[in-house]
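ok trying again, last paste got cut off:
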Amino acid sequence: MPLVYLCVRPQHEAAAAEYASFRETAGLGPDELEQHDLTRAPLPADAFERWRGFLVGGSPFNLTDPERDKSDVQRRVESELEAIAARAADARTAALFTCYGIGVVTRMLGGQVSRQHPEPTGPATVVLTPAGRDDPITGGLASPFHALSAHKEGAGAAPAGATLLATNEACPAQAYRVGDRLYATQFHPESTPVPFTERMALYRDGGYFDAAEYDAIAQAGACHAGHRAGSDAAGVHGAVRRFLTSAACDAGPSSTPVTGTAAEAPDTRTGRSR
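nice, full thing came through this time. structure:
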């Protein structure tokens, strides 16, 4: 049974680049890591029978945007991702949520996501917690390590029920797990400096940085990432592979299909299924 990368980026080029990065990091072919674009098609009704695990990447969507300003697509995407996260928290599937995805999980579990914990585009310094050093997925990382990041919102703490694995001063909830099937990271564990910088170009008007300063930021980011996030990439990528060969391999198919109804989506205020 294959894994799936769930695209939550409306920009096709950015999504294709992120999918390629996940495949390269994981060492998987297209028949082993499939892709499904949630911005263009709902989660299939047989998703939990079709795929043994889910990888969720970044998005220009923001959870903290007022609900009235969100498109129907964004609201549907958030609901479907929350349904996946809820099942993974119950060990009924496996899922790795990154960047935008960690906010979805945090909110589902009743945590607070805000604009108070942004990080600039480029390498971020991240430190493992004691639990992170002992964790089978993150325990192989150096501490501190450098990873690539770019986000406008984040969380000041891991939500209730989660085990904090990694942190830093700018955005304290850098990585956490819920049980042993659900992992979430604020940073991008799949990327390396060159594709990350290329992806930046697609979002130069997205509010992550001053568009007029793109060339300087890209040059500085590539230079710093080359000896920081670039040198730590192998370790971070190793954590992704450990997730795929541990949590995702142990996850079996769920017998309950997705119908897309509100009754089967988790309550975002409590983190429990309705």
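cool. The longest helix spans residues 72-89. Confidence is low (pLDDT under 50) at residues 224-230, 255-274.
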